[in-house]
Amino acid sequence: MENKEFDTSLLKDKALAEAILGKENLVQWETQQVSETDSFFLAQQANILKRIQKKKAHIISLRNLGKIAIAASLLTIIATTYILVNKPTPVVATELVKIEEISSDEIENYVNANELIAATDWSSELNEEAAIYEASTMSSNTKNDSNTTD
Amino acid sequence: MQDDQTLVIAFQASSDKEGPFTQLLQRHQQQVYYQVKRMLNNHMDADDVAQQVWIKVWNKLDGFKMESEFSTWLYRIAYNETLNFIQKQEKQKNINQSETDFDFEDKRIGSDQLKSSQIQIALEQAVKQLPEKQRFVFMLRYFDALNYEKIAAITGTTVGGAKANYHQAIKKMEEFLKQH
User: Fold this and answer.
1) Which chain B residues have a beta carbon less than 8 Å from that of A48?
2) At a CB cut-off of 8 Å and minimum separation 6, what does B133 contact?
3) Which chain A residue shows the shortest CA-CA distance from B115?
4) Over the stretch B31-45, which tens digit does the pLDDT of each residue have?
5) How many Å lie between the alpha carbon of B79 and the closest alpha carbon of chain A?
6) pLDDT at residue A65, as a whole number
7) CA-based nearest distance A69→chain B, Å
8) Cα B124 to Cα B38: distance, rounded to the nearest angstrom
9) Residues of A in contact with B43 (CB under 8 A)
């Protein structure tokens, strides 16, 4: 039923066009349009499939390149972090110098140059040291005295 | 013989897509080509556009959700590609400007089709002066005998719009033929 309706409406539409434009003209025009041979369509089909193959190959190679690029960047990151983490601390060459080898002038210059040490009040330091020494000797003497009296 | 839907499912599901694609291509190749050729009226251009349509189908078929028939979807792609081609051609025409381009077009038509009569030429001109949508609707209805639902889906319009386009196309062609 639906098909019949569809057919009649299509036939009506076609009849309208043919009445105005001429059925023969339309048929002739269509014959000119629909004129390709089977070999043309075979060639077109081959072309389309060839283009698709090319595209596929291109995509695959891009995918592979992508994987390689990811692997390369990961390797670079790992290598750089490894180098940075294991960077050897610079070894400062130190020579052992004996105090006897240093001249008193050099020591004096060093002390003068160093503010903290230079600011030290050496006399009071010595006095303090002396007082401690005295106190210790005094206590040992009193101990000896008490031993002898016993 | 498998129907379009089965072939689309096979394409989407399998890793070997070429088999089902080739079957779809063989089934619809001629209709796509002639649909484009009727619009462009030129063999070489129609061949280029038709090939482009199938490349697009290959690229997009995985995402086709089968909300419409495969053929509707396919002819819609063909319709859009043809319109894009016409627009590009028109832009190119504007850049190149009239005289040389006009000569070229005349030669192209002349070599591509052998005109049998003045009426044929007039008819061709009448078809050519139609707006793209009306031309497409007329071709799909008259030569491909598609129903208006399908034509509406292909051209992105309503059924009423498609019917109106068909009748307007005939009216415009009639007026053109009367004048020439």
Assistant:
1) 25, 51, 54-55
2) B155, B157, B165
3) A32
4) 999 999 999 989 999
5) 17
6) 65
7) 25
8) 10
9) 36
Per-residue model confidence as pLDDT tens digits over A5-44? 567 889 999 999 999 888 888 888 888 888 899 999 999 9
Tell me whether B121 touches chain A (CB under 8 Å).
no
**Dihedral sign computed on CA atoms, order B55, B145, A35, B24:** positive
At position B73, the amino acid (one-letter code) is W
**ipTM surpassing 0.85, yes or no?**
no
Residue B41's pLDDT is what?
A: 87
Asked if B74 contacts B35 with a C-beta cutoff of 8 angstroms, the reply is no
Mean pLDDT, residues A46-70 taken together = 77
The size of chain B, in residues, is 180
In chain B, residues with a C-beta closer than 8 Å to the C-beta of A6 are 147
Confidence category of residue B86, pLDDT binned at 50, 70, 90: very high
Where does the pLDDT of residue B55 fall: very low under 50, low under 70, confident under 90, or very high at 90 and above? very high
Position A73, amino acid:
S
Whether residue B18 lies within 8 A of chain A, CB to CB, comes out as yes
Question: In this model, does residue B97 exceed pLDDT 90?
Answer: no
Residue B31 near residue B39, CB atoms below 8 Å? no
Q: Which among A5, A30, A48, A59 is the top mutation candidate for probing chain B, defined by the most B β-carbons within 10 Å of its own β-carbon?
A: A48
> Is the confidence at residue B109, as pLDDT, over 60?
no
CA distances B86 to A48, A97, B25, B54, B103, Å, are 21, 93, 24, 18, 18
CA B93 to chain centre: 20
Query: Which amino acid would we find at residue B55?
Result: I
Cβ distance of B147 and A10 shorter than 8 Å: yes
